[in-house]
Amino acid sequence: MAHAKYIFVTGGVTSSLGKGIIAASLAKLLQARGLRVTIQKLDPYINVDPGTLNPYEHGECYVTEDGAETDLDLGHYERFLNVNTSQANNVTTGRIYQSVIDKERRGEFLGKTVQVIPHITDEIKHRIQILGKSGDYDVVITEIGGTVGDIESLPYIESVRQLSWELGEHNSLVIHLTLIPYLSAAGELKTKPTQHSVKTLMESGVQADILVCRTEHELSEDIRLKLARFCNVKPEAVIQSIDVETIYDVPNKMQEQGLDTVVIKKLKIKTGAEPDLGRWNQFLQRHKNPKSEVTIGLIGKYVELQDSYKSILEAFIHAGAENEVSVNIESIHSEHLEVDQVSNHLEHLDGLLVAPGFGERGIEGKIEAVRYARENGIPFFGICLGMQMAVIEYSRNVLGIEDANSSEMAQETKNPVISLMEDQKDILDMGGTMRLGAWDCELKSGRIKEIYGQDLISERHRHRYEFNNAYRDQLEKAGLDCTGINPKSGLVEVIEIADHPWFVGVQYHPEYKSTVAAPHPLFTSFVKAAADYKKENNH
Asked: Kindly report the CA angle at 310 between 309 and 316, in degrees rounded to 5?
């Protein structure tokens, strides 16, 4: 295929219908037919990136290999496709306007009046096509955030209209994801909201080619025909998306409904094969038929909202399937962990994960939880802030440095075992002070090296504070092994305790790299350790 084909996914009626999952599932089906596919997300909000958004509002911030702080949907794309995304896969209105305003300040518009059309829409069209023009992909799927009819979505919908016209026939199509509500009083499904949504899209000059209908009940033939007739699509292009027990069922459901077949027909893509979902279905099989189960405590600051630790929860699903173990996650809010009540919360657990986070709320509870896991031989996994808590706990309770702390939480501390490394700032040149994206790590001997089975790894980071090397010798002598080091800066990336069943803290975020096809070795090893612990302790 000479030119990339474009698929636009829009949403109607309500947000949170799962555009990201539908986009990722379609991409998986096309990929399983041998096509090279990528997905990008256009977000209509004005923040320049999701890095500063509260996880309660927007879920987790997902970090790519190249250090972009992006929307959590990019996590779904990577987990489904096992292909890396980058800065180019997530664009916000803030970034679009910033770019256009910078050009205007530099005089690139030659004194023209800068307007939404053509200047903002041209920039959006340019961003949509960056991946398509790279020559790396046969199909680019572009998911447009928000809901059709929102004021902020209008420039994106207009850009889709222009681009569809410019690309010509069979080179692009629009999938509209909508909701078919069920009125229990009347006992029937209602198509009117979808009709209105499609009409709103048409008012902007965009005709939906395929409708994907989220529903809690099967769509009857009558309803499909009615939708097709009123929304101007072919009956086979009305695709039912019914609730499923796991998001990983969606590709199979979409295949049953013929979504990929309709897309290939409409875009006139030549592909011989039916999708090969062998590896995918193996994973599903293991995920749905576990041989045992474990309970792992997840201690964090944003546990009320599932989406704020999305990548960690999904990594446990991948690792659980790999071990044929069902992983029950018990969320524990770090602020509710009273120091003297820790054992009540933790004694029934088979493993403990202290999650990433920023700020000082709930810190003492976390430290006490680490102590409990360390002293009682419970498998412990600390990620980012979780690793830092383990260093503070060890410094206080094993080395006896009572006021050991992180200068993030306690600027005045005399013993900042975790701090901002002044002399490292120049070496790291972190863009602001954050260490973001993929960094190398050299593994010394120890459990970590066995888990990865290699000497040099690369993992993604998103943090500001570091292990303070001034305390490294003392800690190592006292039994806290520093077994992963960043070769450029000499900073500690991994700590572990040798005479403990499984105690590992990592400064990076392994959860970002776990996918269905390649579960992350650290999560896989941790889940296995939890299962072993459970057997030995007859939990």
From this structure: 95
